């Protein structure tokens, strides 16, 4: 499909240029015709000047035209002037004998201009018939077309230059007008492109012209339907995850009891350990699905934010991750300085769990993981540094997409960093990904300063 701009240019420029060309032609003729009339009038005046020199002498007509007077009539700096005076029988009374035959005219004293040829050169002729006494006399005056051709060329070039300037100005005006007219579409496109994938809010119909209002209404209707579908999916996901938590927790409890009962039977104990490990993975995935639904930016309520001491929140999760790190002989260190942030207690706990769990998973055996909280100049910072393989710069945007994984050999479902991104967005925070000093990666979440007068943290 051609662009709207191209279509508008085609339907505006072509007709306007056509009208402009027609107008230029009319202007040319309006400029040239008066000039032509003026030149013809000059020739007619020369013919009129010879009439007083004519007189009747009996049955003949004579002319009293001296050589000096004839030279005055023939003076012209550009063209050659030709004269002729003939009686009724065509006898030459004065002027050029080779002057073309003058046409017979019925009217008297009416100059008639026409084109002709004199001595092989195009000329303009004015013929005049008059009566001297009772004798008709024919007078002709002609001049070459050099002056007329020059004036005609000057008029043509001036109009051509003027029309070129006007055409360029017209094109610029049309382009600016179309660009200004399409600006609301450009703003709408920029608004839609600047939105995050979670922003399904309606477009403002008051900020668009009347012609775009139906389009905006259609887009808003589509966004409403997509938003309803997204909410339904999130609610379904949250409900399923919530319903699975209780039976899975009961199943894990039963497996722990079976493991104690069959501790003396190696084969049974080994099988129960494998089932317990699978159950733990299912519980973790269920919890992540529930967190993902709860952290959805479109559903998050800012009223849930409270002042939270981030360092104490991390301390509450230490024991679990110490045990996980011990399984791979990872040196898990903590640098927890007093750090206060605005946040949701439960979502921040999930953010901490996912970043530390991700660091332990991707760090090699005998590696190191360092967890830090500190109060920076712009707000609180929570960071986790691992000794894993690192993340290429080209992958640093993709790792936060759902189900994206850097290494399929590492257990996981690819939701951890997507959850971290959504929780950070809920808290107005930004995430940075930097290479570690000795390899690996440093994930840092930068929180804004808490707002004074907000409620304190919930008890941990």
Automatic annotation (TrEMBL):
Gene Ontology CC, one term: plasma membrane
Classification via SMART domains: HATPase_c (SM00387), HisKA (SM00388)
Domain Histidine kinase, chain residue ranges per copy: 239-451
UniProt keyword annotations, A-Z: Kinase, Membrane, Phosphoprotein, Transferase, Transmembrane, Transmembrane helix
Catalytic activity line of the entry: ATP + protein L-histidine = ADP + protein N-phospho-L-histidine
UniProt keyword annotation of Transmembrane present: yes
Annotated compartments: Membrane
Segments traversing the membrane: 12-33, 154-178
Lineage per the UniProt record: Bacteria, Pseudomonadati, Pseudomonadota, Betaproteobacteria, Burkholderiales
PANTHER family registered for this protein in UniProt: SENSOR HISTIDINE KINASE YKOH, SENSOR PROTEIN QSEC
Name assigned to this protein: histidine kinase
Keyword Kinase tagged: yes
Gene source species: Collimonas arenae
Cross-referenced Gene3D superfamilies: 1.10.287.130, Histidine kinase-like ATPase, C-terminal domain (3.30.565.10)
E.C. number(s) listed in UniProt: 2.7.13.3
A single GO molecular function term of this UniProt record: phosphorelay sensor kinase activity
């Amino acid at each position: 499909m051609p662009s709207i701009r191209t279509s508008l240019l085609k339907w505006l420029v072509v007709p306007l240029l056509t009208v402009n060309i027609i107008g230029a032609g009319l202007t040319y003729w309006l400029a040239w015709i008066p000039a032509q009339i003026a030149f013809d009038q000059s020739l007619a005046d020369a013919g009129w000047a010879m009439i007083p020199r004519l007189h009747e002498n009996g049955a003949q007509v004579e002319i009293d035209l001296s050589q000096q007077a004839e030279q005055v009539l023939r003076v012209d700096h550009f063209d050659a002037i030709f004269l002729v005076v003939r009686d009724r029988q065509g006898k030459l009374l004065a002027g050029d004998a080779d002057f073309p035959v003058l046409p017979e005219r019925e009217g008297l004293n009416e100059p008639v201009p026409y084109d002709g040829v004199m001595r092989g050169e195009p000329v303009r002729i004015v013929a005049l018939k008059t009566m001297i006494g009772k004798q008709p006399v024919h007078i002709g005056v002609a001049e070459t077309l050099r002056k007329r051709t020059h004036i005609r060329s000057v008029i043509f070039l001036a109009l051509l230059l003027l029309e070129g300037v006007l055409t360029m100005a017209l094109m610029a005006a049309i382009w600016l007008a179309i660009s200004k007219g399409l600006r609301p579409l450009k703003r709408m496109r920029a608004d839609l492109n600047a939105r995050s994938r979670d922003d399904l809010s309606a477009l403002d119909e008051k900020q668009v012209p009347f012609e775009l209002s139906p389009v905006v209404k259609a887009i808003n209707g589509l966004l409403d339907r997509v938003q309803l579908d997204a909410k339904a999916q999130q609610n379904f996901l949250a409900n399923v995850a919530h319903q699975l938590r209780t039976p899975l927790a009961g199943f894990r409890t039963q497996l722990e009891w079976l493991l104690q009962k069959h501790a003396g039977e190696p084969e049974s104990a080994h099988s129960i350990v494998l089932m317990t490990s699978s159950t733990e993975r299912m519980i973790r995935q269920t919890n992540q699905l529930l967190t993902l639904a709860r952290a959805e930016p479109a559903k998050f309520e800012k009223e849930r934010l409270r002042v939270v001491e981030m360092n104490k929140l991390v301390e509450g999760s230490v024991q679990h991750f110490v045990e996980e790190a011990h399984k791979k002989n990872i040196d898990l260190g903590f640098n927890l300085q007093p750090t206060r942030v605005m946040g949701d207690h439960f979502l921040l706990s999930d953010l901490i769990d996912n970043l530390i769990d991700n660091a332990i998973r991707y760090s090699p055996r005998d590696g190191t993981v360092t967890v830090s909280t500190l109060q920076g100049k712009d707000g609180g910072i929570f960071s986790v540094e691992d000794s894993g393989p690192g993340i290429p710069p080209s992958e640093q945007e993709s790792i936060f997409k759902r189900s994206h994984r850097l290494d399929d050999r590492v257990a996981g479902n690819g939701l951890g960093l997507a959850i971290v991104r959504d929780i950070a967005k809920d808290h107005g925070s930004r995430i940075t990904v930097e290479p570690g000093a000795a390899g690996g990666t440093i994930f840092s979440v930068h929180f804004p300063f808490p707002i004074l007068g907000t409620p304190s943290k919930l008890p941990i």
